[in-house]
Structures are given as C-alpha cells and as structure tokens.
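fyi for ur records
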Amino acid sequence: MPQLHIHFTDRDVAHTRLKLEADLRWEIAGSAQMLRRGECDLSFEPWRRHVREVAARDPDLRMALHTVMTAAPHAACCWPDDLSTTGSAALRQALHVYRRCVIEPHLPIIEDGLCTDAAARIHQYLHLGPEGLLRSLGDAARWHPPVLSVDHAHDRDLHLGGRGLTLIPCYFALRHPVALADPPALVFPIRTESRLLAGGRAGGDQLTALLGATRASILRSVIGGSTTTRLARLVGVAPATVSHHTGVLREAGLIATEREENFARHLITPLGLRVLAAGR
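which gave:
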C-alpha cells in the first residue's frame, strides 16, 4: 500500500502532542463517510439505527444528511475546505442540523470512548515519552525513528521542519490515519475496544465494577481536565452529586482539583491513569 512518510527532527518529537478533546469537524466528516459507504463495524450499529429512525420522521435531517454526505471528502486522505463554517448558507444550516441530530445525542459516548483510548496513550507517554505515542497509533502507522510511515492514498513525504505533530483521535474513523500538512496533524481511529467500552458498560467492565458507573465515567472524563458543571452534563447527574463523587476520587488519589476563581477544575493523576489503563 502507498505510504506517507512523516519526517521528524528532535524538535518535532519533543513537540508531538495528543489532542484530548473531541474534534467535531473530524467526527462529522468520518461519520458522514461511514453513512455514505454503508459499511462499519458492529459497534456503530446502534448509532446508525438511531440516525435512520430519526431521519425517517424528520425531513430536515434527511436533507441535511444528503448535503453533508455529498460535501464530505470521498478520499480518506484530506479534509475538504467546503465542509466548514466558511461554506454556503445551505451547507452551514445542514451542518447545524447534522451535528444536532447525528452527533450531539451521542456526544457523551463519543467523548467517553476518546477518553478511554487517551488514558492508555497518556500512560505510554508517561513511561516512554513522545515516541511512545508515535508507537501507539495502530497497524496502519509504523514508527522507525526519525520517520513515521502511515498507510495513505499516495506515496508522499511530509517534513515537519520543527513544527511538531498534533495527534487527533477520532471516534468515527475506521481506516488508516489522515494527515494534514499545515498545521501538521494526524487524525487516527481510536482502538475498537475503547469504542466498545464507551457508554452503557456492562458487568464485564472492571473499572465500573471497582468504582461504580458514575465514578468510572467521571474518572474517564477528567483526562483532559473538566469542571464540575461540564462533568454534570457529561455524566448526566446533578453538580452536587458530581462534587460528592469527585471528593471520593480525590481522597483515593485518582484525581486532583484546582480552584480557579469561582469554579473547580478536576484533573486525573498518574495513579488515576494507571487505574484507567488497567481497567480497560
């Protein structure tokens, strides 16, 4: 298969970073590709069923699906300028409807999957540094210092030249990573097991069995840092309930809390990362 060869300097390796929050542009593009191709693994079937059911009774969503799937990239190697807020008024409206109906109802599960996946990668970073992240991108990406080779639509070379590389995990990506040259970024699919563990975890989830469903979800959600209000929205409980659970997790040494003016920001600790990685 053709390869994209990404060339690193020592400065590039030092400036490699992992994006921890969901990038909704890529989630929209990946999900639209998936709906258009009609092929995905079983972990996406509940989501596809939900989209079909809503679209059957919502003509605005049917029109938005047609517009977004037409504008989404046909090739999995680039991001189209058209699929952005700078597009036509009709496209902007279609993106708004698509995001509201197709993405946002599932956003807690999407973010849960991304957080679960990031926990293991951050754990590798703590032990192996940035090169540990570059080795964790799956079979479609191979790190042979100083070059990261990625399955791609065409043979190509990308020299970072000291700019570093941003790694963007994507819930709705199934195939090989997607590379951007300016600014340099690599969008890659999260692990299948991280996606399967996200949302509605059954009794086989060791972390839920250990901490309880709410505390396990909170622990996953603070990987990139989160306020009490945002945790309440993500987990679906009252802020006072979140405060109780974060207090328990803080006493156990799994999270830390920083006070900033009128709000508290909760952050996972190295011990919390080890518990998450082991609980997968």
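The longest helix spans residues 107-128. thats all i got for now
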